[in-house]
Amino acid sequence: MEYITTEIEGVYIIQPRVFDDSRGYFFESWKRDEFEAHVGKVDFVQDNESKSSYGVLRGLHYQRGEHAQAKLVRVISGRVLDVAVDLRKSSPTFGRHVMVELSGDNKRQLFIPRGFAHGFLVLSQEAVFAYKVDNVYAPQAEASIRWDDETVGISWPIDAKDVVTSEKDLKGSRWQDAVFFE
Length: 182
Known about the structure:
The chain contains two helices and 13 strands; from the N terminus they run E-E-E-E-H-E-E-E-E-E-E-E-E-E-H. By secondary structure, the protein is mainly beta. The strands form three sheets. The protein has a six-stranded antiparallel beta sheet, with no helix packed on it. A five-stranded antiparallel beta sheet has the order 9-8-11-6-13, with no helix packed on it.
């Protein structure tokens, strides 16, 4: 696998080596020793999967305090635009974001350390999204920033009227009201 650094320290794009032949393909999606050599030790405790249709935008989600989560995300089928926003006040990239297209075709993954808000927008008719987390979900620590917050300034590639999101995500905080990490 190739571990590609991004403009935000700690966030990596991971490009697996894919072996194609007449039967289909094979690739290693995660290998602990290799991952730890490039990223560091992360103790993943849970795998999650969601299915969404075109225009669905999930996020920008994060868990506060001791319930923060690192994530390793990928798309099994379809295409999404995946975004990680740096919420670490001590970071030189505080408030900036990384955006990458993940798809079942490119098989890329994005590693997002603790201290980030995360979201994705489905660009294909349908997408199956999978991710590992290093901490279990804690509803009392759940938080989100609105996907369309002007201070965050994410340029989503579809018209706002075509975005489909949850009622809960519509009630996400604005940047100035978010809870940040030290």
